[in-house]
Amino acid sequence: MSEAVSRPTLEAVAARAGVSRATASRVVNGGDGVREPLVERVRKAVEELGYVPNQAARSLVTRRHDAIAVVIAEPETRIFTDPFFALQLRGISKELTAHDNQLVLLLTEGRDDHARVARYLTGGHVDGALVFSLHLDDPLPGLIEGAGVPTVFGGRPGWGEGTDSAVYVDCDNRGGAQDAVRHLAGLGRTRIAHITGPLDQTSAADRLQGYRDVMATLGKADPRLVVPSDFTPAGGERAMGELLDRCPDVDAVFAANDLTALGALRVLREHGRRVPEDVAVIGFDDVLPVTGQTEPSLTTVRQDIEEMGRLMARILLASLTRRNPEADAPASVVLPTTLVRRATA
């Protein structure tokens, strides 16, 4: 039997580089106060020996775990069927990977899960948290604040304990909705309906407000033209059916997201309504897996979902390395949206 090859030690790295163990440790663990020539010698020794730092020991020195929790306040059935979440996670993962950090995914189905997530974060397993898809009165912000974990939110929290000074990344939901409704009005549509998202989320509430802004300006506000839904195709189908029963003269629909628009288009087709001739339709998000399924091709409001994920991670990682967290507090970011014109409007 061949003898097992032992892993190179930090002492071996120090000897190869001709420095003390303390100096080698500071370089390997990202510490300051080492002259550049010595840093290069240690890095060269690490490469030559194939030294891999002991993460547990490194954490004791740096007080960092190089792991970030991603907390999504939605059930698994929603997360794994809505491409929005895949794009957001892809952006986050790319940024964390580029900085040699691990992504730890935590999902919340109910109140018991909230307590579990809070316990995990309080346990010191991760350096920070990225949290998105919050709902009204969600206890997560307060629980996370209590855990003392640096956090960046995806989407404007807007309410609830622990959100007043929250740092977040969002898109201009209200402005994007305004652009969509103005476009429909510019096409000569006068009975413009809105199928909302879940109104206990700020993204849906902001899009509804943008719709109302323009309809009020046009003098065509009609509460019957607003139907609540839930960001899903099935919800879009139910809402579109209700709209046609309630307001058969509807000639345009602004759907709160692309999945909702997908459901609405199915019902319009079943009822013999031509799109866009009889009813023009606009969605929100511009997620390719959905827009590629619609017939005709979907006009929608584009938000850069993947970039939002990257920005969330980038802001959080930068906050973890600031020398003076109070003086250099990060600012929230709101990205612009773009109306993407295709065949439905």
CA radius of gyration is 25 Å
Low-confidence stretches: none
Beginning-to-end CA distance, first to last residue: 73 Å
The tally of helices reads 14
Question: What class would the helix/strand composition place it in?
Answer: alpha/beta
Widest sheet: strand order? Answer: 2-1-3-4-5-11
The string of secondary-structure elements, in order, is HHHHEHHEHEHEEHEHEHEHEHEHEE
The tally of beta strands, per DSSP, is 12
Arithmetic mean pLDDT: 88
Overall shape: it is elongated
Oligomer: single chain
Helix content: 40-55%
Instruction: Give the amount of beta strand, in percent.
Output: 5-15%
Largest sheet: 6 strands, parallel
What's this, in brief?
Helix content is 45%, strand content 15%. The protein is of the alpha/beta class and 345 residues long. β9, α13 (288-291) and β10 (299-302) form a beta-alpha-beta unit.
Question: What does this entry look like structurally?
Answer:
The chain has 345 residues and is an alpha/beta fold. Helix content is 45%, strand content 15%. The chain has 14 helices and twelve strands. The strands form two sheets. Strands 2-1-3-4-5-11 form a six-stranded parallel beta sheet, with helices on both faces. Strands 7-6-8-9-10-12 form a six-stranded mixed beta sheet, with helices on both faces. The protein is elongated, with a radius of gyration of 25 Å. The relative contact order is 0.12.
Question: Which secondary structure elements does this structure contain, and how are they paired or packed?
Answer:
Layout: H1 10-17, H2 21-28, H3 36-49, H4 55-62, E1 67-72, H5 76-79, H6 83-98, E2 102-107, H7 111-122, E3 128-132, H8 140-147, E4 151-154, E5 168-171, H9 173-186, E6 192-195, H10 202-218, E7 226-227, H11 233-246, E8 252-255, H12 258-270, E9 280-285, H13 288-291, E10 299-302, H14 305-320, E11 333-335, E12 338-340
Parallel strand pairs: 1-2, 1-3, 3-4, 4-5, 5-11, 6-7, 6-8, 8-9, 9-10
Antiparallel strand pairs: 10-12
Helix pairs in contact: 1-2, 1-3, 2-3, 6-14, 7-8, 9-10, 11-12
